[in-house]
Amino acid sequence: MKRLTLAEASAILIGTQIGAGVLGLPYALREAGPILGVIVIILTGLLTLLTALFVLEVASKSEGKSLSKLTEEHLGKFGGILMFMSISILAYGALIAYIAGSADILSSLLGIRAEIVAVIFWMVMSLIVFMGLKTSGEAELILNGVLLSAIIISIVLVFGNISSENIRYANSSAALRGVGVALFAYVSHMVIPELLKGLKDVKIATKAVFVGYLTPMILYALFILAFIGAFGSETPELATKVLEALYGSLGRWLGLLLPLAAICTSYIGIALSQMDNIREMLGCSKISSWLLAVAPPLVIYFAGLKSFVNALWLAGTFGGVIYAGILPTLMYLKVKKKEVNFHLHIPHGIVYLSGLIFLMVFVYSLASLV
After folding, report:
1. Is the distance from CB of 89 to CB of 324 less than 8 angstroms?
2. Is the confidence at residue 128, as pLDDT, over 80?
3. CB atoms within 10 A of CB 200
């Protein structure tokens, strides 16, 4: 395997995350108000950054293993299966949403049937994933340049429309309901063991994790502040749709380009991780694990599951909380009892607190379904 650069590794992390955030966050947190929305996304970001560092520390003691195999090693067979299932729920939910989103966007741009462009998108993105980590990292660098430019331009264009009435509005219960999508917006923990394998240096990998999590956190906060601050409860499911009403054809193209770039970057990172996850847990060949990673979402899409934010909420709540919160915390505590040479020494009190918060979010989410 060719070694990754710090820029490529950071790009994979950023790209894996920002797809979900740009597409789902403003709508999911619109009833909370912009200030509470920003608070939710920052607190969630800091917690997931912490557990991402847990994953990195654990992975550095058993390099070359996927996140599911690491969990199995330290938390037993049941822990490994639970991690595998959590990642799979999260990955398939995301990939279905991205196929559906790309179909809607490309169909609108090109005037071609959504089903046809869905297949074309799926084929191109899945081929990049099949070509491996290095090719994916290079593709992510290019796509991230487009994505970050589009996000910054969108924020600048919308900021002037923020109203004081929307800024003052806040609803704490609505903020809690948006936590599932907020968690989904930081779902790149499964990529970290793979990046460490490509970087071959835990210190460089630590830098990549900080860049890869703090960059989306800042952009998410500004994006939420701009769009919910400007449109409040009227924020549409695809937030950037409002750009056409404000800026005509320029706004329309920008409003479609941004989520399309976001979908592409996130699809690559998540599919790549799911492919590695399946290969290690099921002992499949490269071709078989690739097909098992990318084929089911396309089949389910054509079977009729074409919703978007609901898929992100379910995946983030019941996949993300377990996979990005509870299991990494338990693994880290288990490994820390045996290992003394940790790259970062995080106080036990902070570790226990993060685990408790994720557990409370999970219980609250279950209760909200009743």
Report:
1. no
2. yes
3. 12
